[in-house]
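[step 3/7] inverse_fold.run input=structure_tokens len=173
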């Protein structure tokens, strides 16, 4: 494979990668979000701030059950797709769901690769055999911190309490 030839199965297009580096500069999401909010006529976006650091828990010596939470807007065929305006709902998906039955709905990232292989935003296949009976997903484009804390977080905590994982892997998009 050369720098101009994608690996087998890779979609054509996208930046060429050579020597493990991408020739494009990193995206500045803070400035992008500020510009987007301004262009839509909203007040300046207020980033969430916490006065205290989150509690830290030591990693368990033995991990048998992994809870998986992804923010990539993944849902299973037959479930309602996420909509794009502060959708605070979650989807619970059986961990033995074939990846060809997964779909994505999210406005804040290019879903091209995720629609080919959902493992790039929700690594089910990589964790099979270790996962709890269900995984949880949500659409991470929730701009209301209040609604995130009051609606999404309690639903995710309930998922964790019911599934009783040894650890939870959070997969941001």
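[step 3/7] decode complete -> sequence:
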């Amino acid at each position: 494979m050369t720098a101009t030839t994608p690996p087998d199965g890779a979609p054509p297009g996208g930046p060429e990668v050579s020597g493990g580096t991408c020739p494009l500069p990193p995206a500045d999401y803070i400035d992008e979000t500020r510009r987007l909010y301004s262009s839509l006529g909203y007040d300046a976006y207020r980033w969430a701030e916490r006065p205290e650091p989150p509690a830290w828990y030591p990693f368990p010596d033995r991990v048998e059950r992994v809870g998986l939470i992804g923010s990539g807007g993944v849902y299973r065929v037959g479930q309602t797709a996420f909509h794009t305006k502060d959708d605070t709902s979650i989807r619970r998906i059986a961990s033995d769901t074939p990846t060809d039955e997964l779909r994505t709905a999210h406005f804040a990232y290019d879903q091209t690769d995720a629609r080919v292989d959902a493992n790039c935003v929700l690594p089910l296949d990589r964790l099979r055999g270790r996962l709890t009976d269900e995984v949880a997903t949500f659409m991470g484009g929730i701009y209301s911190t209040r609604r995130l804390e009051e609606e999404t977080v309690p639903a995710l905590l309930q998922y964790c309490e019911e599934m009783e994982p040894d650890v939870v892997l959070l997969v941001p998009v």
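[step 4/7] annotate
Residues 1 and 170 are 33 Å apart (CA to CA).
Strands lie at 66-70, 74-76, 90-94, 102-104, 134-138, 167-171.
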